[in-house]
Amino acid sequence: MYDKNTSCCFTGHRPEKLPWGYNESDPRCLDLKERIFAAAEAAYHSGTRHYICGMAAGCDLYFCEAIIELRSWHDDITLEAAIPWSGQSGSWSMPLRRRYDRLVEDCDCYTLVQEHYTPECLMKRNRYMVDSSSLLIAAYNGKPGGTMKTMLYAMRQGIEITELPIE
Fold this sequence. Notes:
The chain is 42% helix and 22% strand. The chain is α/β, with parallel strands linked by helices. A 6-stranded parallel sheet has the order 4-3-2-1-5-6, with helices on both faces.
């Protein structure tokens, strides 16, 4: 078990809600990836050592890759994949599934929230991450959805939020 006081989790949008979609070479995406890395690095310098990622397509995978890079500089970082159900990547394209599998393998540990999909498993995953952290980094476009719900839950739990606006 990791110390909540030195743990950080992440929430953000899937490609369908991002203005650039799946085009990760878009300058706005590249900028967001840099801001995610900078926020994760700032968290490290404030004492964070354990990072938890929900492993959804889009912003979650950007965060996971940023932490893997940050971990290459600091060997006291651990990265946890919080997987909502065992078939999370099952309907994704083959390249995206390969990326997901590689990233899960690069994590230090993983938590499987439940074996099979149910409508509430993503919310359970998000609550697990927030309940295990003292900081939430959120890439947020200002619209209703899972990211907003996770941020609201984090606010109710009294944990710090670093918001990275997406426009």
